[in-house]
């Protein structure tokens, strides 16, 4: 169901009909924008040192490529935390054209509002997007190792259930491109909280000699299944950002002086 094309756009048949709602989901690579230098070219992160006008122009390009008004986007000030914000029509445009206007200290958002498109920005972390075709409603969560260990995917599902009545068995999950288990080498700073959170933590890593690599994709699936999602409703891009720096920004592969790519979702 997930399609990848040469323009750097990954989509889940963007206007496919699911139940009562039409669901749009898209992940953009690093090509096709106006940013320069290490941020070349479709950087959507305001907080990195890039020219703010370039970031705004890139966000406008993304919105227009999907035939969306730029002020229909809602963005967050992501902090690798576990806060889930409930978004409605009144939040449209928050953070769309500035870092200051974004939802503060927020790493996940949920909404049942149509024409309100939730956007997260990443450069290795996974974005988990949950879609409820029955209500309809959506949730989107920014998950690096901290978010995964904090159970942010599960918290997003719980918030959708508590707020909209979403049933986990109805939900579909899309796991965005992120750093893969081929490249995500971790040490004790990650392994210690991982052991504390999961008794079967070894199922979430790959070992090669004395090197240990974390599998964010498996962690996302595990959280989804533990939350009550059906295995057949979990879709993963399984594209490693660190392996494909020609297509995506990667903090691990390129260092801190790089951009962020966008993942967004909404109900049309």
Number of helices: 6
Q: Could you report the average pLDDT, rounded to the nearest whole number?
A: 92
Major β-sheet profile: 7 strands, mixed
Question: What gap, in angstroms, lies between the N and C termini?
Answer: 19 Å
Question: What's the number of extended β-strand segments?
Answer: 15
Structure description:
A hairpin with a 2-residue loop joins strand 12 and strand 13. This protein has one domain: 4-Layer Sandwich (CNF1/YfiH-like putative cysteine hydrolases), CATH 3.60.140. About 2% of the residues have low confidence. It is α+β, with helices and mostly antiparallel strands and 268 residues long. The strands form three sheets. Strands 1, 2, 3, 4, 5, 8 and 15 form a seven-stranded mixed beta sheet that branches. Strands 6-7-10-9-11-14 form a six-stranded mixed beta sheet.
Brief summary:
This protein has 268 residues and is of the alpha+beta class. It is built from six helices and 15 strands.
Q: What attributes characterize this protein structure?
A:
single chain, 268 residues, alpha+beta, CNF1/YfiH-like putative cysteine hydrolases, seven-stranded mixed β-sheet
Write the layout of secondary structure elements.
Layout: E1 2-4, E2 9-12, E3 17-18, E4 21-28, H1 52-65, E5 73-75, E6 84-87, E7 108-111, E8 117-122, E9 126-132, E10 137-143, H2 145-149, H3 152-164, E11 172-175, H4 188-197, E12 205-208, E13 211-214, H5 216-226, E14 234-236, H6 251-254, E15 261-267
Parallel strand pairs: 5-8, 6-7, 11-14
Antiparallel strand pairs: 1-2, 2-4, 3-4, 4-15, 7-10, 8-15, 9-10, 9-11, 12-13
């Amino acid at each position: 169901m997930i399609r990848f094309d040469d323009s750097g756009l990954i989509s889940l048949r963007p206007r496919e009909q699911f139940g009562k709602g039409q669901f749009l989901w898209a992940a953009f690579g690093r090509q096709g924008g106006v940013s320069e230098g290490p941020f070349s070219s479709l950087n959507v992160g305001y907080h990195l040192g890039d020219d703010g006008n370039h970031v705004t122009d890139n966000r406008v390009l993304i919105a227009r490529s999907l035939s969306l008004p730029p002020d229909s986007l809602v963005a967050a000030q992501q902090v690798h935390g576990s806060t889930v914000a409930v978004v409605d029509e009144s939040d449209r445009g928050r953070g769309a054209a500035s870092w200051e206007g974004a939802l503060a200290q927020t790493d996940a958002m949920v909404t049942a509002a149509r024409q309100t498109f939730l956007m997260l920005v990443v450069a290795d972390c996974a974005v988990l997007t949950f879609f409820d075709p029955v209500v309809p409603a959506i949730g989107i969560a920014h998950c690096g190792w901290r978010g995964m260990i904090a159970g942010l995917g599960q918290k997003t599902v719980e918030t959708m259930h508590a707020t909209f009545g979403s049933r986990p068995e109805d939900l579909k999950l899309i796991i965005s491109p992120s750093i893969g288990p081929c490249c995500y080498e971790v040490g004790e700073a990650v392994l210690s909280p991982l052991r504390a959170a999961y008794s079967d933590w070894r199922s979430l890593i790959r070992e090669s000699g004395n090197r240990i690599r974390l599998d964010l994709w498996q962690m996302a699936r595990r959280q989804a299944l533990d939350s009550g999602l059906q295995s057949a409703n979990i879709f993963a891009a399984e594209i490693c950002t660190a392996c494909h720096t020609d297509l995506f920004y990667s903090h691990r592969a390129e260092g801190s002086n790089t951009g962020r790519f966008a993942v967004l979702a909404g109900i049309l």
